[in-house]
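Hi D.,

Good news: the full-assembly prediction came through. Inputs first.
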Amino acid sequence: MVSRVIPVDPFDLVIFGGTGDLARRKILPGLFRRFCAGQMPEEARIIGAARSDMDDAAYRKLIADAIKEFGNGFTFEAATLNAFLERIGYVAVDATGTDGWAELAGRMRDGTVRAFYFSVGPSLFGDLAERLHTHGLATDQSRIVVEKPFGRDLQSARALNATLAEHFREDQIYRIDHYLGKETVQNLMAVRFGNVLFEPLWNAQYVDHIQITVAETVGVGGRGGYYDKSGAMRDMVQNHLMQLLCLIAMEPPSKFEPDEVRDEKLKVIRALEPIEPHHIVRGQYSAGGDQPSYRDHAENPRSNTESFIALRAHISNWRWAGTPFYLRTGKRLKARTSEIAVVFKDAPHSIFGVDAGRHRNVLAIRLQPNEGMTLDVTIKEPGPGGMRLIDVPLDMTFADALGDEAEEVTDAYERLIMDVIRGNQTLFMRGDEVEAAWAWTDPLIEGWKQRGDVPKPYDPGTAGPDDSMMLMHRDGRRWRELKT
Ligand code: NAD
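Then the structure:
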């Protein structure tokens, strides 16, 4: 298969927080892969901007080391890396002061696409936006890329939107949710809207329920202090799981264009019903083996922050009335896996009798590991002895189906950054979407606080608290097995 890479226009990309963890683990290695793929033009420039004092050479060395460490086995020639590094520079900048801004402004070229990636803590977003203006770096065509978390509740998200809006138009603001950059997530839209096969069945009449799972095996580890102020609801559900839910549930947009897609996603969030407390299960992992408990990690022996959440959501519109959406996410679980499963209803009548058992079509969209999709279909068990039915998966693992081209589909960040350069906001969250998502989650979080809700303990290496199973069992359903 021939890979098609469309080069982007020349650009100046400034990465604020260019020495930080995210820049070293994701952003720069991703940009290097785009460079190797031939997508980055000769005139592209990347400028790291952070607090540390260092020159271009020291920064290039930092980035070379990061690419080697976090390249995920990506192989390349030393000369290729050197050619990439030549495009990279560094300016020490104080986001809250005046140091470095004049030098940074001096490095910008006129008439070139300008993008500023805010890979710093959210408390600095407003300072950066303001200084980009006061120091004359922001042009009418500049873009800013904003990392999560985008607020910690509706009020703070509104305030942040308002601050950014003082200096940038909405079409200049790219709020990143890297889940939207995943190949499978985009494939979900291709499958839904590119085939005639699924869309007629994509509604409450044929879909029994939908499960969205994002499970991790790691604990909060060194991020315990930060995570403890957040929890699974804020850290995962309000953004990543909500975005997946939107793409699964939205009406077909008239075009695959930014506002058409985001208008439809927004309608889904606004149609979410408030959740009853007994339709949410919060959990917190206990100690296990030689691993500490959540509370040890968080260094807060009384912490009531959840490291696991499972909930049942309903969307009140014609398409989905009566079809539950079950969402779960957690840390220190049995397997690292993320998937969306569309579980279709039973055939209305079984001509094979009760002995044939209950069989259901399930479309499972795997985000990790091994991005791909499977469709369980019911067939006859081979051999003599009557009509016994079994479910077999039609498997489309991208790495198998696409061969070498699957190499191209690795990381979400690199795709999203290229979209920023192209000026395509389709896979970025709009301000009103983020606010609507907080408006839905805020009362749930507030309710726990008022009730003094304590999360249920669960053993590491399991599928979470038993109550999560009960959430499903009560409805005569069960979670799909967590497996890698
Ligand atoms: P980090 O602490 O590793 O890096 C922070 C960076 O900001 C450093 O380069 C530091 O020099 C710079 N910085 C801090 N104060 C500054 C100032 N006053 N002026 C200029 N530069 C300053 O953080 P990180 O993990 O890279 O995260 C960056 C952002 O990305 C955060 O908003 C985080 O929530 C978000 N994020 C990170 C990850 C991840 O995997 N690390 C994932 C998703 C989102």
